[in-house]
Amino acid sequence: MTKPRTTGLKPWFSLGGIAVFAVLLLAIAPLVLTDHWLNNLGKYCCWAIAAVGIGLAWGRGGMLAMGQGVFFALGAYAMAMHLTLETAGDRVPGFMVLYDPLAPLPVFWEPFRSAGFTLLAIVLLPVVVAGALGYALFKRRVKGAYFAILTQALAVALATLISSTIRETGGDTGLSDFKYFFGFVLNDPANRLMVYLIAAALLIVCLLAVWQLYRSRFGELLVATRDAEERVRFLGYDPANVKLVAFVVSALMASIGGAMFVPIVGIITPAEIGAAASILMIAGVALGGRASLFGPALGAMAVGWGQSSLGSTWPDGWTYLLGLLFVVVILFLPNGLSSLPAKLMRRARRSPAERPAPAIAPAQLEEVRS
Amino acid sequence: MTDALVVTDLHVEFSGFVAVGGVSFDAHPGEVRFLIGPNGAGKTTCIDAITGLTRGTGSARLGDQELLGRPVHKIVRLGVGRTFQTASVFDELTVLQNLDIAAGRHRRSASLLRARRGVGASIEHALAETGLTGELATPAGILSHGQKQWLEIAMLLVQDARVLLLDEPVAGMSQDERTATGELLQRIAAKRIVLVVEHDMDFMRRFATRVTVLHQGQVLSQGTVAEVQADPKVQEVYLGTAGAATTAAMAVVLERED
Description:
heterodimer, A: mainly alpha, two-stranded antiparallel sheet, 15 helices, 70% helix, globular, B: alpha/beta, Rossmann fold, six-stranded mixed β-sheet, four-stranded antiparallel β-sheet, 10 strands, 37% helix, transmembrane helix (chain A), cell membrane (chain A), Urea ABC transporter permease subunit UrtC (chain A), membrane (chain A), ABC_transp_permease (chain A)
């Protein structure tokens, strides 16, 4: 056994990066940010958690998951139903009795009274749904644009379903006005800080999880499957299983992001999980760099920040700016903004003097032509 | 000693077109078995059918196991490995990572979650065998064409394939690389079944133990190199109607024999 040269310092360097990120989010941010911006940062963390999962599925696995809103919704609505019931106490939630004062609580709401069931649902629902969906799609070798369109359609379908079932799910108005979070009063600034810290910590945990996945053999196998699925099959693996694992993990992350989104933002509506929201999640990942460790999270946070600062003061301009940024990045930095430092460094190192001379001098070429 | 690969009455049809119509041959460990024939003779289709890439009827048995009808990855797990006409390695991964993935079918799935520590003995052996030891950390995408082909063979070695089906392994190689590849095949064939699909008649002449000539999906001739070349049917096909490139190659070979 000899020491391979490939596993150098890079993974440990990335781990240091996660540590710095953790200190910034968990220690520095609460000290320097106002309550309002800390809450916003918490919201970006939720999108970032979903983005980390998209980076895994799309960046490393090559599955353009355009419907992560579905899994974001599973976590978000599970959490929102629990918080709604917690707020309503023994009574039926207010929006349900709006149309019919005697309306009973729908059967599928009942188990969400239990905190344990809710937490379990946030974890297990996306695993089961993504597992079944992924199994059906990957075993039938659905990939590329077909996979993207199919997942996107599911997000649209789910948003439409929620919109049209106003008595059961709150419809377009969504679920809101939560007063408690597992017994903690949500108005209390100390509790709001706690909720923020949970979201930020979960983001760090997700980053650590993909850090380990990327440096593991599974990470290598996933890249191999992305680049040459057929070849992987001829090495004795079933690529469907490899993709399934990555897709399920990414769905789980989207669900966790959705679940934390609810107590932080205080409302969940179909608009937050539909086609547009799902594409915005993808946009952040693409901008940041889909195959890198930090790119998806930072990209999602940047898009989130742009959304809430520029998006509110200059809504039209923001949409164009985002579109322009998207075009520029795809054209000049196909691997996202996170590939910029390495690119600049390579350019700086290769100063003009060191550049290799062209194999044929231009003058010679002219001679040949004439 | 490994069991033989026995193909009996193999048929492959593509919506009415018979690509392979009743081909039978066998291959044993200890011989470098060649499958030759003009373009469209059905050589690659035979390999595709044996490895489960295309559906074939008839029988292809490895020992007492029937291969036809199983999914690709299950056939691989029975010990059948193959390469492709265009070297297909994972360009973005290093030579070591490529080999490590190939070695993976003997590993438990839980170990996938850990990072690799060190280089396994089978990988070191395959690297030495194929002369790639110095390229351990090189991304496979920047290897030379010949090195990519060798990496593919190395991947089959760490995969511990009992049967190696090689589709034009020396296409695009220099003369020295061809010789090295041929000698490599003779070495590894001692304990494994090696079946080579080739266009290059000179390469075939130098390294084949036994040859099967296919023509329009049928076996035209079978035997040692000398027997096959002496067969008038083979001469007719190669010197008569077949593709220009192979005709020229075969003509050169026949001239030398004369």
